[in-house]
## 1
Amino acid sequence: MSKRVKQLPQERGSVLFDVVYEDGSRKSNRRVPMEILGGLDGDEPARLLIEEQDEAIAQKSGRPRSPIQELTRSAIKAPKLASEDRQSSGG
């Protein structure tokens, strides 16, 4: 029986970003579709999408979101075997 390797989000068509806001707060692993990135705009479309998502969240929560100070791609972790997850979680 072969061991299954978990797919990374980048392999499924998404890129993860870490966002630092002007108020000092930070959100990690914000998912952005890969197809909107690249070209001459680079990662700028990701900033626009995350700002739109933040605006929708702010409207629903009634609390304004601080403007984005910095946007960087999340570090890519090495894939783990599915069996390693079960061993580390005790099951």
## 2
Amino acid sequence: MSYYVYLSGEIHTDWRDEIQRGAEAAGLDIVFTSPVTDHAASDAAGDHLGEESNSFWRDHKSSKVNAIRTKTLIEQSDLVVVRFGDQYKQWNAAFDAGYCAALGKPYVTLHGEAIIHPLKEVDASAMAWATTTDQVVEILRYVLKA
């Protein structure tokens, strides 16, 4: 039986690939899912619903279309990994972590020490805080093979 892991958050590095490669090397039966990681495509998710002259309404429509995917995949997951990068503020990742907390869905945060303070509430509800993708893979290995 496959374990479902949703990889939420930062889209500008290859952290998802690192976790997937590590899980594969460890022989873990995991199905990984994620949000749309093509920034332009995500921003344009609602454009087919009609042009907007105000960027607020364009973003509003696209966020709702993106939320169909995000909510569904988080709800179907067994575990969520939420990555916060140092370069950008990932408000969507914080929202995903809050959604997991509200659902009682286990999640692990992945971020550096430089942003411990702004993420203290997010980390407080997480099952673990990792600073490397290798640590995430080890958590997955333990959960599935211990």
